[in-house]
Design brief:
- This protein folds into two domains: 40-264, Growth Hormone, Chain: A; 267-300.
- The chain starts with 16 loop residues before the first strand and ends in a 5-residue tail after the last helix.
- 63% of the residues lie in helices and 2% in strands.
- A two-stranded antiparallel sheet has the order 1-2.
- The relative contact order is 0.16.
- A hairpin with a 4-residue loop joins strand 1 (17-19) and strand 2 (24-26).
- The protein is mainly α.
- It has helices spanning 39-46, 49-63, 67-76, 96-134, 136-147, 149-160, 165-170, 176-190, 196-221, 223-243, 259-262, 275-295, and strands at 17-19, 24-26.
- The chain crosses the membrane at residues 46-63, 139-159, 200-219, 225-245.
- Keywords: Membrane, Transmembrane, Transmembrane helix.
- One of its GO terms (molecular function) is transmembrane transporter activity.
- InterPro entries: MFS, MFS_trans_sf.
């Protein structure tokens, strides 16, 4: 890979360049490069996004599905005299104290479901503005670290019997959706225009595959081992971001950060800028409504 800007010559050339002063990778200027390239070519363009997505998603898949049982174990303490170490609703949810804890968990889920849209309205646009001003790499390091604070607080509960409240408070504000938004922006920076939709879709497909692999691995390992390995994966992923992950947004394309742009209502008009965005926003809202409604009953 060249260490300075090189002249783009023909369709056969690798459609990205390395900026020497920041080590950033970005797509060549211009909008049209012909039809989308093959999957292998797109994977090369995506570069370090691919291994980071795989490592992070495996760890997420190992603990995300069983996190609901952490809440059951936590609330079940209020309905039994058993020692906390002897409560394992993840193994037998039919116990009377686990059944009573289900009511508490559903109340918690309702509260978090109401808080989530408000929190996302605040932090998602702000994360986008931050990444446009300071670059994708710094934004990704920040949001990835914050989104895993819930994992670290869950570790304290699993291994040291600490309260889970801090993990629940953090989750609506900083979660995987923020990281996905920044990664998608990085993909737009790197990929040539005809390949952007296919490239971002490929990243999401890899994310799902890695998540399922992590899920299967977590089911075989048990709760403590799953949280331990997921935490190790978080540390490895963070070190990967700090040492190997390149910047994709060059300085000349970054925007100026100002207080007004951080306000959540400043970004809302984009949802109805044209008819396509209006229809897309409606479809996304209906899809999220159905997805959230059905997912609430699946874990139990």
């Amino acid at each position: 890979m060249p260490s300075s800007e090189a002249t783009y010559e023909g369709q056969a050339a690798v459609p990205h360049r390395l900026v020497a002063d920041e080590g950033s990778i970005r797509a060549p200027e211009g909008d049209v490069f012909g039809p989308p390239q093959g999957k292998l070519h797109i994977l090369r363009q995506l570069g370090m996004i691919v291994p980071f997505t795989l490592i992070a998603s495996i760890g997420n898949g190992m603990v995300k599905p069983i996190s609901s049982y952490l809440a059951l174990n936590f609330f079940a303490r209020n309905h039994t005299g058993l020692h906390p170490g002897d409560i394992h609703c993840e193994l037998d949810v039919t116990s009377s104290y686990c059944q009573q804890a289900l009511v508490d968990v559903q109340m918690l889920v309702t509260v978090m479901s109401l808080a989530m849209p408000v929190a996302q309205l605040i932090h998602l646009p702000a994360a986008g503005v931050f990444s446009d001003a300071y670059g994708r790499r710094k934004a990704l390091i920040l949001v990835y670290t914050l989104s895993n604070l819930a994992l670290l607080f869950s570790d304290l509960f699993v291994f040291f019997d600490a309260p889970l409240w801090f993990a629940w408070v953090i989750t609506p504000f900083v979660n995987e959706q923020v990281m996905t938004a920044v990664l998608s922006a990085a993909g737009v920076d790197i990929l040539d225009k005809p390949s952007r939709a296919a490239g971002i879709g490929l990243v999401h497909a890899l994310d799902t595959i890695a998540y399922v692999c992590g899920l299967l691995l977590g089911l075989q390992m048990g709760m403590r081992a799953s949280f331990l390995l997921a935490t190790v994966g978080f540390v490895v992923s963070l070190l990967f971001l700090l040492t190997l992950y390149p910047e994709s947004l060059p300085p000349e394309k970054r925007s100026q950060l100002n207080l007004r742009s951080l306000m959540p209502w400043d970004s809302l008009p984009i949802l109805w800028r044209n008819s396509v965005l209006q229809h897309l926003s409606l479809v996304m809202m209906l899809s999220a409504f159905i997805d959230v409604g059905t997912s609430r009953v699946l874990p139990f």
